[in-house]
Amino acid sequence: MNTTPYSFDVSGLADFQQRVLESSFNQPVLVDFWAQWCAPCKALLPLLEKITAEFRGQLHLARIDCDAEQSIVAQFGIRSLPTVVLFKDGQPVDGFSGAQPESVIRELLQTHLPPPAETCEDPLQQAQDLFNQGHFAEAENRLAALLAEDSNNAAAHILYARCLAERDELDEAQRILNEVTDDTYKKERAAALAALAFLKQSKDLPEAALLKSRLAQNPADDEATTQLAIYQLARGQYETALPALFGLFLKKPKPAENPAHKILLQVFELLGSEHPLVVDYRRKLYQALY
Protein backbone atom coordinates (compact mmCIF):
# COMPACT_ATOMS: atom_id res chain seq x y z
CA MET A 1 0.00 0.00 0.00
CA ASN A 2 1.07 3.59 -0.51
CA THR A 3 1.96 5.47 2.64
CA THR A 4 1.93 9.12 3.61
CA PRO A 5 3.88 10.88 6.36
CA TYR A 6 0.96 10.15 8.70
CA SER A 7 0.02 6.66 7.51
CA PHE A 8 2.17 3.54 7.28
CA ASP A 9 2.25 -0.26 7.28
CA VAL A 10 3.71 -2.07 10.31
CA SER A 11 6.23 -4.82 9.63
CA GLY A 12 7.12 -6.98 12.63
CA LEU A 13 7.14 -6.58 16.40
CA ALA A 14 10.19 -4.30 16.45
CA ASP A 15 8.55 -1.95 13.94
CA PHE A 16 5.35 -1.98 16.01
CA GLN A 17 7.29 -1.18 19.17
CA GLN A 18 9.03 1.78 17.55
CA ARG A 19 6.45 3.26 15.20
CA VAL A 20 3.33 2.64 17.30
CA LEU A 21 4.13 2.25 20.99
CA GLU A 22 7.09 4.65 21.18
CA SER A 23 5.66 7.14 18.68
CA SER A 24 2.39 7.30 20.60
CA PHE A 25 4.21 9.27 23.30
CA ASN A 26 4.59 12.07 20.70
CA GLN A 27 1.15 11.81 19.10
CA PRO A 28 -1.69 9.23 19.29
CA VAL A 29 -1.52 6.38 16.79
CA LEU A 30 -4.66 4.81 15.37
CA VAL A 31 -3.97 1.14 14.55
CA ASP A 32 -6.07 -0.52 11.86
CA PHE A 33 -6.07 -4.34 12.05
CA TRP A 34 -7.12 -5.56 8.59
CA ALA A 35 -6.72 -8.38 6.04
CA GLN A 36 -6.77 -8.62 2.25
CA TRP A 37 -9.84 -10.88 2.25
CA CYS A 38 -11.85 -8.52 4.51
CA ALA A 39 -14.21 -6.37 2.43
CA PRO A 40 -15.32 -4.14 5.36
CA CYS A 41 -11.64 -3.47 6.09
CA LYS A 42 -11.11 -2.16 2.58
CA ALA A 43 -14.20 0.02 2.86
CA LEU A 44 -13.05 1.48 6.17
CA LEU A 45 -9.46 2.32 5.22
CA PRO A 46 -10.14 5.38 3.00
CA LEU A 47 -12.24 6.91 5.77
CA LEU A 48 -9.50 6.36 8.36
CA GLU A 49 -6.89 7.88 6.01
CA LYS A 50 -9.12 10.89 5.32
CA ILE A 51 -9.70 11.58 9.03
CA THR A 52 -6.01 11.07 9.88
CA ALA A 53 -4.91 13.49 7.15
CA GLU A 54 -7.15 16.21 8.61
CA PHE A 55 -5.13 16.16 11.85
CA ARG A 56 -1.92 17.09 9.94
CA GLY A 57 0.45 15.10 12.11
CA GLN A 58 -1.47 15.26 15.41
CA LEU A 59 -2.60 11.70 14.67
CA HIS A 60 -0.88 8.84 12.83
CA LEU A 61 -2.46 5.77 11.24
CA ALA A 62 -0.73 2.38 11.42
CA ARG A 63 -2.01 -0.53 9.32
CA ILE A 64 -1.43 -4.12 10.43
CA ASP A 65 -2.08 -6.98 7.99
CA CYS A 66 -3.37 -9.65 10.37
CA ASP A 67 -2.41 -12.54 8.09
CA ALA A 68 1.21 -11.35 7.96
CA GLU A 69 1.57 -10.09 11.56
CA GLN A 70 -0.03 -12.86 13.61
CA SER A 71 2.27 -12.34 16.60
CA ILE A 72 0.96 -8.77 17.02
CA VAL A 73 -2.62 -9.95 16.51
CA ALA A 74 -2.16 -12.59 19.22
CA GLN A 75 -0.56 -10.10 21.59
CA PHE A 76 -3.66 -7.89 21.52
CA GLY A 77 -6.26 -10.64 21.23
CA ILE A 78 -7.77 -9.41 17.97
CA ARG A 79 -10.75 -11.67 17.16
CA SER A 80 -12.73 -9.82 14.50
CA LEU A 81 -11.93 -7.57 11.54
CA PRO A 82 -11.73 -4.75 11.06
CA THR A 83 -10.61 -3.77 14.55
CA VAL A 84 -9.24 -0.28 15.20
CA VAL A 85 -7.33 0.59 18.38
CA LEU A 86 -6.12 4.02 19.49
CA PHE A 87 -2.72 4.06 21.24
CA LYS A 88 -1.58 6.94 23.43
CA ASP A 89 1.49 7.13 25.68
CA GLY A 90 2.40 3.57 24.81
CA GLN A 91 -0.99 2.07 25.77
CA PRO A 92 -4.28 1.18 24.01
CA VAL A 93 -6.85 3.70 25.23
CA ASP A 94 -9.88 3.22 22.98
CA GLY A 95 -11.11 1.47 19.86
CA PHE A 96 -13.91 -0.28 18.00
CA SER A 97 -14.65 -3.35 15.90
CA GLY A 98 -16.52 -3.50 12.62
CA ALA A 99 -16.89 -0.83 9.93
CA GLN A 100 -18.22 2.16 11.85
CA PRO A 101 -19.69 5.38 10.38
CA GLU A 102 -17.58 8.52 10.26
CA SER A 103 -19.52 10.16 13.10
CA VAL A 104 -18.66 7.32 15.51
CA ILE A 105 -14.96 7.46 14.66
CA ARG A 106 -14.82 11.22 15.09
CA GLU A 107 -16.62 11.01 18.42
CA LEU A 108 -14.07 8.47 19.65
CA LEU A 109 -11.15 10.68 18.62
CA GLN A 110 -12.67 13.80 20.20
CA THR A 111 -12.26 12.17 23.61
CA HIS A 112 -8.48 11.92 23.18
CA LEU A 113 -7.40 14.66 20.74
CA PRO A 114 -8.07 18.34 20.15
CA PRO A 115 -10.10 18.95 16.98
CA PRO A 116 -8.09 19.29 13.75
CA ALA A 117 -7.24 22.80 12.64
CA GLU A 118 -9.61 24.39 10.15
CA THR A 119 -8.66 24.20 6.50
CA CYS A 120 -6.51 27.14 5.45
CA GLU A 121 -7.48 29.19 2.40
CA ASP A 122 -3.89 30.23 1.66
CA PRO A 123 -2.95 28.36 -1.58
CA LEU A 124 0.66 27.92 -0.45
CA GLN A 125 -0.44 26.39 2.85
CA GLN A 126 -2.94 24.20 1.02
CA ALA A 127 -0.11 22.94 -1.19
CA GLN A 128 2.07 22.36 1.88
CA ASP A 129 -0.72 20.37 3.54
CA LEU A 130 -1.17 18.26 0.41
CA PHE A 131 2.58 17.64 0.26
CA ASN A 132 2.67 16.61 3.92
CA GLN A 133 -0.17 14.17 3.27
CA GLY A 134 1.75 12.58 0.39
CA HIS A 135 -0.48 14.03 -2.36
CA PHE A 136 2.50 15.26 -4.36
CA ALA A 137 0.86 15.57 -7.78
CA GLU A 138 -2.03 17.63 -6.42
CA ALA A 139 0.37 19.83 -4.46
CA GLU A 140 2.44 20.35 -7.61
CA ASN A 141 -0.65 21.42 -9.57
CA ARG A 142 -1.63 23.94 -6.87
CA LEU A 143 1.90 25.36 -6.85
CA ALA A 144 2.08 25.60 -10.63
CA ALA A 145 -1.10 27.69 -10.62
CA LEU A 146 0.26 29.85 -7.79
CA LEU A 147 3.59 30.43 -9.56
CA ALA A 148 1.77 31.37 -12.77
CA GLU A 149 0.34 34.34 -10.83
CA ASP A 150 3.39 35.06 -8.66
CA SER A 151 6.61 33.85 -10.27
CA ASN A 152 8.74 35.47 -7.54
CA ASN A 153 7.26 33.43 -4.68
CA ALA A 154 10.42 31.80 -3.28
CA ALA A 155 8.57 29.57 -0.82
CA ALA A 156 6.38 28.21 -3.62
CA HIS A 157 9.45 27.54 -5.79
CA ILE A 158 11.09 25.56 -2.97
CA LEU A 159 8.03 23.42 -2.35
CA TYR A 160 7.53 22.96 -6.10
CA ALA A 161 11.10 21.66 -6.34
CA ARG A 162 10.34 19.12 -3.60
CA CYS A 163 7.29 17.95 -5.55
CA LEU A 164 9.44 17.48 -8.65
CA ALA A 165 11.99 15.52 -6.63
CA GLU A 166 9.26 13.17 -5.40
CA ARG A 167 8.55 12.16 -8.99
CA ASP A 168 12.26 11.72 -9.74
CA GLU A 169 12.79 15.03 -11.61
CA LEU A 170 15.94 15.54 -9.56
CA ASP A 171 17.92 17.71 -11.97
CA GLU A 172 15.03 20.13 -12.50
CA ALA A 173 14.43 20.27 -8.74
CA GLN A 174 18.12 21.08 -8.23
CA ARG A 175 17.99 23.83 -10.87
CA ILE A 176 15.00 25.49 -9.22
CA LEU A 177 16.58 25.38 -5.77
CA ASN A 178 19.83 26.82 -7.13
CA GLU A 179 17.88 29.82 -8.40
CA VAL A 180 16.29 30.59 -5.03
CA THR A 181 18.42 33.32 -3.43
CA ASP A 182 15.96 34.85 -0.95
CA ASP A 183 17.55 34.41 2.50
CA THR A 184 14.11 34.73 4.09
CA TYR A 185 13.59 31.07 3.19
CA LYS A 186 17.10 29.87 3.92
CA LYS A 187 15.94 27.08 6.26
CA GLU A 188 13.28 25.85 3.85
CA ARG A 189 15.81 25.77 1.00
CA ALA A 190 18.31 23.87 3.17
CA ALA A 191 15.62 21.32 4.05
CA ALA A 192 14.73 20.86 0.38
CA LEU A 193 18.40 20.42 -0.55
CA ALA A 194 18.80 17.81 2.19
CA ALA A 195 15.77 15.87 0.93
CA LEU A 196 17.11 16.09 -2.62
CA ALA A 197 20.54 14.86 -1.51
CA PHE A 198 19.04 11.74 0.09
CA LEU A 199 17.00 11.01 -3.04
CA LYS A 200 20.07 11.39 -5.26
CA GLN A 201 22.22 9.18 -3.04
CA SER A 202 19.56 6.47 -2.87
CA LYS A 203 19.48 6.11 -6.67
CA ASP A 204 23.00 4.65 -6.67
CA LEU A 205 22.49 2.30 -3.73
CA PRO A 206 21.79 -1.45 -3.77
CA GLU A 207 18.18 -2.53 -3.28
CA ALA A 208 16.91 -2.36 0.30
CA ALA A 209 16.31 -6.14 0.33
CA LEU A 210 19.98 -6.77 -0.48
CA LEU A 211 21.13 -4.38 2.25
CA LYS A 212 18.84 -6.06 4.78
CA SER A 213 20.22 -9.44 3.73
CA ARG A 214 23.77 -8.20 4.29
CA LEU A 215 22.85 -6.94 7.75
CA ALA A 216 21.13 -10.23 8.62
CA GLN A 217 24.40 -12.01 7.84
CA ASN A 218 26.58 -9.38 9.50
CA PRO A 219 24.87 -6.84 11.83
CA ALA A 220 28.21 -5.02 12.17
CA ASP A 221 28.26 -4.12 8.46
CA ASP A 222 28.47 -0.33 8.89
CA GLU A 223 28.41 0.37 5.16
CA ALA A 224 25.15 -1.54 4.71
CA THR A 225 23.68 0.17 7.79
CA THR A 226 24.54 3.61 6.40
CA GLN A 227 23.24 2.83 2.92
CA LEU A 228 19.99 1.38 4.23
CA ALA A 229 19.48 4.46 6.42
CA ILE A 230 19.95 6.74 3.40
CA TYR A 231 17.50 4.60 1.44
CA GLN A 232 14.98 4.95 4.27
CA LEU A 233 15.52 8.70 4.62
CA ALA A 234 14.86 9.18 0.91
CA ARG A 235 11.47 7.54 1.49
CA GLY A 236 10.62 9.49 4.62
CA GLN A 237 11.18 6.57 7.02
CA TYR A 238 12.88 8.79 9.60
CA GLU A 239 11.83 6.83 12.67
CA THR A 240 13.55 3.73 11.25
CA ALA A 241 16.69 5.43 9.93
CA LEU A 242 17.60 7.68 12.87
CA PRO A 243 18.22 4.92 15.48
CA ALA A 244 20.57 3.16 13.04
CA LEU A 245 22.47 6.37 12.29
CA PHE A 246 22.76 7.23 15.96
CA GLY A 247 24.08 3.73 16.65
CA LEU A 248 26.78 4.30 14.03
CA PHE A 249 27.62 7.65 15.59
CA LEU A 250 28.11 6.05 19.01
CA LYS A 251 30.78 3.76 17.57
CA LYS A 252 32.96 6.79 16.87
CA PRO A 253 31.46 9.87 18.60
CA LYS A 254 33.82 12.40 17.03
CA PRO A 255 31.94 14.45 14.42
CA ALA A 256 34.96 15.05 12.20
CA GLU A 257 35.58 11.29 11.90
CA ASN A 258 32.03 10.07 11.59
CA PRO A 259 29.89 10.40 8.41
CA ALA A 260 26.79 9.42 10.40
CA HIS A 261 27.04 12.75 12.25
CA LYS A 262 26.84 14.68 8.98
CA ILE A 263 23.81 12.67 7.87
CA LEU A 264 22.09 13.27 11.20
CA LEU A 265 22.60 17.03 10.82
CA GLN A 266 21.10 16.86 7.32
CA VAL A 267 18.04 15.13 8.75
CA PHE A 268 17.74 17.85 11.40
CA GLU A 269 17.71 20.48 8.63
CA LEU A 270 15.16 18.50 6.68
CA LEU A 271 12.70 18.01 9.55
CA GLY A 272 13.20 21.33 11.35
CA SER A 273 14.28 22.13 14.90
CA GLU A 274 10.82 21.66 16.45
CA HIS A 275 10.18 18.16 15.09
CA PRO A 276 9.95 15.65 18.00
CA LEU A 277 12.54 13.36 16.42
CA VAL A 278 14.99 16.26 16.03
CA VAL A 279 14.47 17.36 19.63
CA ASP A 280 15.06 13.79 20.82
CA TYR A 281 18.17 13.09 18.75
CA ARG A 282 19.77 16.48 19.32
CA ARG A 283 19.54 15.70 23.03
CA LYS A 284 21.05 12.25 22.50
CA LEU A 285 23.90 13.70 20.43
CA TYR A 286 24.63 16.30 23.07
CA GLN A 287 24.72 13.65 25.79
CA ALA A 288 27.03 11.47 23.72
CA LEU A 289 29.41 14.34 23.00
CA TYR A 290 29.48 15.96 26.44
TrEMBL record:
It comes from the Bacteria. InterPro entries: Thioredoxin (IPR005746), Thioredoxin-like_sf (IPR036249), Thioredoxin_CS (IPR017937), Thioredoxin_domain (IPR013766), TPR-like_helical_dom_sf (IPR011990). Residues 1-114 form the Thioredoxin domain. One of its GO terms (cellular component) is cytoplasm. One of its GO terms (molecular function) is protein-disulfide reductase activity. GO terms for biological process: response to stress. CDD domains: ybbN. Transmembrane segments: none annotated. Pfam families: Thioredoxin (PF00085), TPR_19 (PF14559), TPR_20 (PF14561). The keyword Transport applies. NCBIfam families: thioredoxin. PANTHER family: GEO12009P1 (PTHR45663). Belongs to the thioredoxin family. This is Thioredoxin. It comes from Ventosimonas gracilis. The lineage of its organism: Bacteria, Pseudomonadati, Pseudomonadota, Gammaproteobacteria, Pseudomonadales.
